[in-house]
Hints:
- The structure is a single chain.
- 41% of the residues lie in helices and 22% in strands.
- With 228 residues, it is of the alpha/beta class.
- It has 2 domains: 9-52; 54-227, 3-Layer(aba) Sandwich (Rossmann fold), CATH 3.40.50.
- α1 (9-28) runs antiparallel to α2 and α5 crosses α6.
- The radius of gyration is 19 Å and the shape is globular.
- Its EC number is 2.1.1.-.
- It holds the Pfam family Methyltransf_11.
- This is Class I SAM-dependent methyltransferase.
Amino acid sequence: MKKGIDAPLVPIVFLLVGIVGMVMAVTSGEWTNYLFPIALFLFAGMYLYTSLWGKYKLIKRVVGEMPLDGHEQVLDLGTGHGAFLLEVARQLRVPGKVTGLDIWNREDQSGNSTEETQHNIDQAGVRDVSELVTGDMTQLPFVDNCFDHVVASLAIHNVKPKASRQQAIAEAYRVLKPNGQLVILDIEHVGEYRRKLEQLGVREVRVQHAGLNGMYALLSTRILIAKK
């Protein structure tokens, strides 16, 4: 599948500042001045690894732990190139379906578009259990209680301000069926999501760290799993 880099400006900044720092270190002749640019190069490498490989391993593990029997209706918020969508789709069969919703912002992920994601779906052979929708996660175009699972990977933190993020969480909860499961992978605001879900009356919620495959430089992905 074609992959995209999450927030592509971030590793570019790491690399550019690292290059400038390396030139200054060479000019200064002081070995300690090499430490900062080397750290930036390491951060860029970690970021690119997680964005292009690590997160896919993480998502595969998370989907493998989801209680899927193949007939569920699943919503993927901020689907991007479809990493979560494709992994879920491989576990489904008609009438099961995973719906990927996004506004297709290229600043959030390089090459983000419905055409690219549909190509990934077709290439994976899961068109019959997949659908793409253009929409805003703060105003979901779905009726109440219609999905068995709602998932999101590195998407909700892009919603600003805080009130809009909380609205996105409320919308995800609204369209989730009773006893349905919400799974969120994110690098920011996970405590905020948890508190909002508890206010909404979620039955149970737990948060865990994702490990090395979820490390975006110094930012660690956390996994939130909640049951309505």
